[in-house]
Structures are given as structure tokens and as C-alpha cells.
Amino acid sequence: MNTEKWNKILSRVLKSELTKRDLSYEDLRKKLAAIGVNEKTVNINNKIGRGTFSAIFLFQCLRAIGAKTVQLDEAFFEQVEKN
Predict the structure, then answer these.
(1) pTM (2 decimals)?
(2) How many alpha carbons lie under 13 Å from residue 81 in its C-beta half-sphere?
């Protein structure tokens, strides 16, 4: 799998976690600010849209939204590989 596909996976993971919680990027911005991470909503949108963000940003987001686990099954990866 190439880097572009891995970026898609990262993007989909975070989008999926936000969708599960019915959270917008603005909601995420506020939750990140509450844990001391200051990002503009437009920057969050760009990072997640491209899937080009650090592991630190991913874990900050997961912490901010209260994600305790992230489930990735094989079907998730296969869907990205097809596209």
C-alpha cells in the first residue's frame, strides 16, 4: 500500500470516530482547546481531509473526543485498497 492510501486510512479513522460521536470539526477544535491543543478549524479540516497529520495529532484528537478504543477490521483496509 502506498503513502496516499495510508493517508486515506488515517483520514477515515478519524472521520469515523468523529461521526460515531456526531462531532464536527468545530466541536473537535473546542475539545482540543480544552486539553490545551490550539488549532484553527480550517487547519483541522485540512489535516483530516488530507490524512497528513502526525501520530501526536491523532492521539490528541482521540483523547479529546474520549475515544478509548479504535476498531480496525480487515474490511476497513480492503475498502481503501480498492479505491
Answers:
(1) 0.86
(2) 6
